[in-house]
Amino acid sequence: MTATPPDLALPIVDSALAARLRERLAEVEAALEQHVVSEAPFVTEAAQHLLQAGGKRFRPLLVLLAAETGDPSSPDLVTAACVVELTHLASLYHDDVMDEAELRRGAASANARWDNLVAILTGDWLFGKSSELTADLGADAVRIQAQTFNRLVEGQILETLGPRDGDPLEHYLRVVAGKTGSLIATSALYGARFAGASEEVVEALTAYGEKVGVAFQLSDDILDVMSESDESGKTPGTDLREGVATLPVLLARRSGGPEDDRLKELLAGDLSDDARHAETLALLRAHPAIGEARDYVIRLAREAQDLLGVLPEGPARQALHDFAEVVATRTA
């Protein structure tokens, strides 16, 4: 099938930049379709499943945006964009198995369509393809990819183990930095480095990507509580029902007023019951923790934007500034 890139995930004021990004994203999309083809038709079908389900392609877009700080025509950039998206897709297959998810991007998850074994092995295959492509980018990229993969897996392990005796909020933020922040940081790093940007710009954009990545996940936490529809492909309150303590929940648990007793009682119990789940969701939506969570995400986005000061004024810097804004305030 012909590759159809998603619409740009943020408004680009500069028409020339927008056109260039759409053109390069189309190249990335076409390359991704080629990279998920196996000699075994079933492997191809399983690997294409989530790729063709869509997605905003935030990570490839960030690679291409960061590349605007140097030479955005470098052929390595399409490869780098494919590396980060294939790594992300692979992690989704594994996440859905661990979360026992039935939906992903509005479609049946691979584990629901087939089984856990197929989903795990497909994720492994995609990780392998990502590593194969990384080797084409050189030894430095292989090292960066290995470090990123280690952080991804460590974040998943930490999430599985729980905070133990540590601070639950601090633990959760460490998990998010590993599972989400690390790959988005690498996306910005790859874009700047393979476009030949200065080391100062590479370092600034890597730090920017880490903060934007954490903000992206935390805004998703808020959406899980506040969304009224299934537009994002995720049923509202899914994390609550599964007992996942996300940012709003952790902040609500820290509150000290007696008016919070009922919410804390519900959060400590089983929310698989529809009535208890609905009550918890309603109480959490009205709780100040939602405002605190939003403030934290916006603060992270502002810190990310401040890091852009080393970039020259122009369309690329403005687009990166807007990228952080969209991530912090998105509604889907």
From TrEMBL:
EC numbers for this chain: 2.5.1.30
InterPro entries referenced in this protein's UniProt entry, alphabetically: Isoprenoid_synthase_dom_sf (IPR008949), Polyprenyl_synt (IPR000092), Polyprenyl_synt_CS (IPR033749)
Gene Ontology molecular-function annotations: heptaprenyl diphosphate synthase activity
Keyword Kinase in annotation: no
Annotated keywords: Magnesium, Metal-binding, Transferase
Cofactor(s) the protein requires to work: Mg(2+)
Similarity-based family: Belongs to the FPP/GGPP synthase family.
UniProt protein name: Heptaprenyl diphosphate synthase
Record lineage: Bacteria, Bacillati, Actinomycetota, Actinomycetes, Propionibacteriales
